[in-house]
Amino acid sequence: MAKPLSSRLTGGTFLMLGVLLISLSLRSPITGIGPLLDLIRLELNLSATQAGMLTTLPLLAFAFFSPIASRIGRKQGLEQALMLSLILVTIGLVIRSIGNSVGLFSGTVIIGAGIAIANVLLPSLMKRDFPTKIATMTSIYVLMMGAGSALSASLAIPLTDLASRLSISAVPSWAFSLASLIIFPVIAMFVWLPQLRSHSAPSKNSTEPDSHSYLWRNVDAWSITLFLALNSFLMYIFISWLPTILVELGYSHHQAGVIHGVLQLLHGRTCDYTYSSNGKDQ
After folding, report:
1. Is residue 208 situated within a structural domain?
2. Contact 223, 142 (CB under 8 A)
3. How far is CA 79 from each of CA 66, 145, 177, 202, 212, rounded to the nearest angstrom?
4. What UniProt keywords are attached to this protein's entry (predicted)?
5. Quick count: other Cβ atoms within 10 Å of Cβ 52?
6. 33 with 54: CB under 8 angstroms?
């Protein structure tokens, strides 16, 4: 028997809301650390190389866990796999906020693993459930990632000030700021709970193993790969060090965090415009 129209509309609304809330958690745990890098280095006595690893480790986790994300999706189902990604991000945020270097680095790796799973499977879910709105959903998805990045970067320093005003001593003020980001995946998990009744595999064309051996001989493939690699290289340099550079140029930590956040939002808005403009040409 077909479901009532109101039930289908409600389910679709919760699905879309869940997708958008998951998107908020896919960059904010990484971008939120940039404005706090100086505080973390001073507190934990980290070198510049060690501090840089805080944004390098998620990339290494992406490279390691992305190839197995589709296997998890096929075995557990898309909905369950995405819930797993949110759980990993939440656990990683808790461990990273313990306040010591071991927790900081190990939590960052766990966060990267959770984000890697969602990075692979969320586009597949959008392709399956919103086949006529792929460009629109993708543009909103990217915009929400930018919004999450902007919020985490802009509020990073104000949250450390809040920790000081509240005399929170259980963890350092920067750890309190990082822990506050847990609100994104926790809300996403509650909204995503109704989707766990489903157990569906990723769309076939995104999960079937294929060696794609011909790509190794394709000049265009290498050009695109190099372009995307350089783009990510520059992006994560900015995420790590832009606030520190701005502070050295005379801006306050608050101003540096806000500028950093605005740039993240503009990046998301630019991608949103690009996807919307190209539409079916993607």
Report:
1. no
2. no
3. 17, 19, 29, 10, 28
4. Membrane, Transmembrane, Transmembrane helix
5. 16
6. yes
Structure tokens at 241: 């060090």
Between the alpha carbon of residue 197 and those of residues 9, 109, 252, the distances in Å are 17, 29, 49
Q: What is the rounded distance in angstroms from the CA atom of residue 44 to the CA atom of residue 108? A: 15
CA-CA distance, 175 to 177, in Å (whole number)? 5
d(CA 35, CA 158): 11
Could you write out the DSSP letters of every residue in 1-62?
Answer: -PPPHHHHHHHHHHHHHHHHHHHHTTTHHHHTTGGGHHHHHHHHT--HHHHHHHHHHHHHHH
Counting the structural domains of the chain, the total is 1
Distance CA 238, CA 111 (A): 20
Q: Which domain holds residue 190?
A: 18-145+153-203+214-281
pLDDT at 7 exceeding the cut of 50: no
Q: Measuring CA to CA, which residue among 174, 186, 229, 235 is closest to residue 32?
A: 174
pLDDT digits (tens, 9 = 90+) for 212-236: 566 677 788 788 878 877 877 777 7
Q: What is the pTM of this model?
A: 0.84
